[in-house]
């Protein structure tokens, strides 16, 4: 399987800035040895999707609402996203859980919405620093996974990706260390195996950069990365891609 390298641009970039960054990345990293996924903001989504239409690069939304339609000012539904022919949607990112109070139940509903329109959910899970310090990491990750995939039929397994993103590692410059990643990914793998029969790719996210990508991509059960800060500049993003591919050759 190709390593998956996903760029979560969060609330950054105008449409033109998004398109320019795509241009720079394509120029520097034309390789299709990795599966590259771009997650621009809603405003840039259509332009980025049109630019990359029919290419090997994939595009996804950073969010989707859990209801089908209705009086939810400012929200975007799965069916609206589906007409853009998107490949992926991020669901349950810790910033959504933390700042927008998204619950495990809503995460579950969002996954169902995405699957109903054939968009692949990238389901984010991860513990806070307090949960880790009080020995609750296993409990939290297991709960988030079991709730996220409640009542989701196993034939959907080939549509799903999971991202392990410890909350304390996101945007802090301190990634989880080798053993923490190994331990969490093994647990996630095992838990997913008890839910689905198919293998589900597991990404790591949280302060991935050009210096740690090399080590992290080689760990057992690490199938790729979800990258925030280091995906905002073509130099750092392309350097990560390069380091990942060196290790995979
Ligand atoms: P970071 O963000 O790479 O800036 O830590 C990762 C993410 O939030 O997905």
General description of the model:
- With 249 residues, this protein is an alpha/beta fold.
- It has a single domain, classed as TIM Barrel.
- The protein has helices at 15-28, 42-52, 78-82, 94-99, 104-116, 129-133, 137-148, 178-195, 210-217, 234-248, and strands at 4-8, 35-39, 58-61, 88-91, 120-125, 161-164, 202-205, 224-227.
- Helix 2 (42-52) links the parallel strand 2 and strand 3 (58-61).
- It is globular.
- The mean pLDDT is 96.
- Bound molecules: 2-phosphoglycolic acid.
- 2-phosphoglycolic acid binds next to strand 8.
Properties at a glance:
249 residues, alpha/beta, TIM Barrel, 10 helices, 43% helix
The hetero compounds bound to this protein are: 2-phosphoglycolic acid
Total domain units: 1
- Please give the largest β-sheet: 8 strands, parallel, barrel
Walk across the major sheet and give the strand order.
1-2-3-4-5-6-7-8
